[in-house]
Amino acid sequence: MQRKISSAAVIGCGYVGEALALFLEQQGTSVTRVRRRSREGQSAVVCCDVCDPKSLDALPTQVDVVFYLVSADEGSDAAYKQAYVDGTRNVIQHYLQQSVCPKRFVFVSSTGVYGQSSGEAVDEQSKTNPESFTGTRLIEGEKLVLECDLDSVIVRFGGIYGPGRDRMLRIARERSRLEPSDYAFSNRIHRDDCARVLSHLAGLSKPLEVYNAVDNEPALRADVLRWLAGQVGRTLEESAGTNTPGGKRVSNARLAASGYKFIYSTFREGYADLLKSPVD
Fold first, then answer.
1. What is this structure's pTM?
2. CA separation for the pair 5, 204 (Å, rounded)
3. Which domains are present in the chain?
4. Predicted local distance difference test score (pLDDT) of residue 215
5. Whether 104 contacts 66, CB under 8 Å
6. Is the separation of the CB atoms in 9 and 32 below 8 Å?
7. What pLDDT does 39 receive?
């Protein structure tokens, strides 16, 4: 059962966050965009730093839903700790101190928390054994969310693509041969589905704690590149030698069971839209 979201704070209003804010506004939700710094040409935002508890006083105090989509400034362990551990803790504590708590706190994580790399199928009950500090810090952030007193849900996104994020299409246009690393399963989701998944889970009356958010078809990177190359009239040569599939196959069965319907159910539908746009 879905409930209406009257007001929301989108903390980390970047690539996915802005798409979410626009979608929520289309549904009649009053949205506060929260960023560390304002961007030229972007709608009015509230500026604060999640690593500075005092600056969080600028956050709206009474909102139905808080979406936490903060990302690390750089690829270092310190930056990931600030974004996903320290920042998460600060924002949670800030809202727990308010007279009226949000009805839901939605935390954006990643399928990178799963360390499986031999083609295994994984779901939300699979062991999380990240291979790098990035996944480890995400798990620390998730733990803070799961243990706090806010009504919370965690969303683990796969690889996000969409307008402005067409790297696979560029590779298919420019490369002549597949590489051994392409024979690994990949899991993806279009930006527009990201926005709608977040809104959908925020509005569920009784969501589960964690959801994987990927489309309906885990696919070998090689298969995606072959399909994209074919769409632009090219052929990629196969990689030499035996290529044993790696990566992992992430299940979205729990998300589907919640009632969510994808706009782009596989990479074919999503990239078909990107193919209609000119390449810069």
1. 0.95
2. 10
3. 7-275 (3.40.50.720)
4. 98
5. yes
6. yes
7. 67
